[in-house]
Amino acid sequence: MTELALALAAGAALSSAGVVLWPAALCLVAALIRPIRSSRRPRFAAGAGSGRLRALAWAGIAGLAHGHVASARGLRDCRWSIPEGEVQLVGWVRTVETPGRFQLTVVEGACPRPVRVQAPLPRASAEGSGVRVRGRWVRRSEAAPGVDPLRAGQVVAAEVESAEVVVRDVDRWSARTRARGLDAVDRRFRREAPLVSALLFARRDRIDPALRDAFSATGTAHLLAISGFHVGVLAGGVIALVGRMAPPRRAFAAGAGVAWLYVAVLGFPDAATRAALLLTLASLGRWMGRPVAVSGAVGTALAALVLIDPAVAGRIGAQLSFAGALGLALFTRPWTATIVDRWRRWRGEAPGPRVRVGVEAVVATTAASLATLPFVAWHFERVPTVGLPASVVATPLVALALPSVVTALGLDALGLPGAAVPAAGAEGLLALARGWVGLWARFPGASVAIDRTETLAATVAVFMGLLLTRWVPRVGGVARGTAAVAGLAAALLVWPVARQMARNGALEVYLFDVGQGDALGIRTPEGRWIVVDAGPPTGRRLAADLRRVGARSIEMLLLSHPDADHVGGAAALLDEFPVETVVGPGTLRGDGPWRGALVQARSRAVPWRVVARGDRVALDGVVLRVLHPSRRVDGAPREANDASLVVELSWRGFRLLLTGDISVEVERSLVEALGPVDVLKVAHHGSRTSTDSLFVARIRPEWAVVSVGRGNRYGHPAPEVMARLEGAGSVVWRTDRSGALRLRIDRSGAIEAKGAGRGAR
Predict the structure, then answer these.
(1) What is the DSSP string of 266-284?
(2) What is the pTM of this model?
(3) pLDDT at 494 over 70
């Protein structure tokens, strides 16, 4: 059952990824119907044991078809129903990403699919809440060529005017329950209230970003998201309590009932629903007096959720949840038994209860971590190296704290005395967990970057090794292991070569969507990186976008001027990446982010090179020519924006003009030194103080890219600037409407443009 459910889910996930149905189905069928030679004549039939393979293949095809049918139904509505201007949507909150951004699954209105919404949520709203949103649609381009952007879920609602809770009776009850719970959390818990809100009510947006980063870097972020772990801890407490007074089957039934009640309060998020389904299956098994196969129960729950909503298979939360559950089900018992057996051989006696509990905790953490590792690497493009030691201590601390939290809130709700005692105990445990995670997060190399190509290569290499250990015959106990190691080495060595060949000596320019700010990434034909500006003080998000497109180090960090929306993330980039050199204008004055970048560069021993007009920097055939300012200044310039570096990047006839935040006066002083360019980074986010008609007529850009925040208070970009550029025949790309952009320039100078969603893919 587990294998069939996995095949069904894999098919549905491939559908979400845009895999076309009929070619995939033909390939699967062709793989199953193969010629098998016998002693008499060739015949087409399934070989020995292929009935199982056939069943798995057909389950995969069924999942693919089911996903396409469900997706096509939504796509049809999207294609015909999305209006221009203001719209109203009613749907369910899938995830809360930040205090001002969440994902909404639309049930009334255009496009009944997940969309991203820019708006503050009401306080009682969490995953699963019903909300009404008024705003306007902003289409996003999809990174993969040939894939409909709606199919990939890249339709985004932004500049939302209002959001109010609109719920049915059951949802109104759950919203009120969450609101009362959050009030009680604020009342009973002080320093740890944001952490308790996340652990119990899925309000991760209340947690300090630095703490979120620490949990993410150490691979313990799952503790902050409602998952089977939280449901299991609460249900386990109920089972243990009721089990003292009633038979086990009634205890399991009570645990399942509490689990479903908790899931209903949360709004039925995927991971929690999976856990409740598993507990229900376990309760049924206990009630019927039959043993429960945990892996089979996981498979049944997975199949049920995929049949109800095939999009579940493509969601990272569901993938991590089921992968972790399968890891626990498949590996915990055999690995524990192996360790206990070796302990017995070593010590001559079985380990004591405390040792066994410790072994099981370490084994369970390891099993779940290894099972989820490929999904973590694929989606987050980082792998925690300290996940095991961080999780082994943090997980039991959180598991012990949760019952104390529930006890304190229960006593508070009933008006009984004594709530302060379990609340204090929970705060102490959570403080220890927070401190432990923070300690490991500060370790150098707590997490390492890995892009999707490397993740795929490593996964294929591991599977090759596993297959070789089964297929290669044993020769003196050596050949099989040697072949496995050789296969792993070959896969890991060949992949980087193939990846470098795929680049084919092209120049790539990435315009990142960093909101109201500037940040560009330039990958040279040899694969080295130049980063121009670092956006506002959200540098870790920019670092994630850079890693996502393959950056592992930065050869040159060019900062145009000291404004926070251009250098706010520079210190974080210097902390996250090895940086060879920083290039900037000759001013030592600036606000906090500029000084922070200077301090960080000095602490990392990164050279800081000051440039002015006439300076040239060359890297792998890419030449950067500095056009402005005309001199190095060691003080505050007359106008900070007009002291921006203006740089022309050239490679094989391709020209990119980087203008910082200069005004019309500086543009006019540069007109005589400029000629036509292929791409213009529009100055000052499209402000009306820049990009006048004389300047545009002189450079005649084929592309004009504007980095600007959605709904910004400055009114950027100015309509007259956009009209001026469009009137000159330029293709205008705005990050507030279209997200990030990737430009690929081949050796002939041809430009291939591709939208890249929120950041860049």
Answers:
(1) HT--HHHHHHHHHHHHHHH
(2) 0.62
(3) no
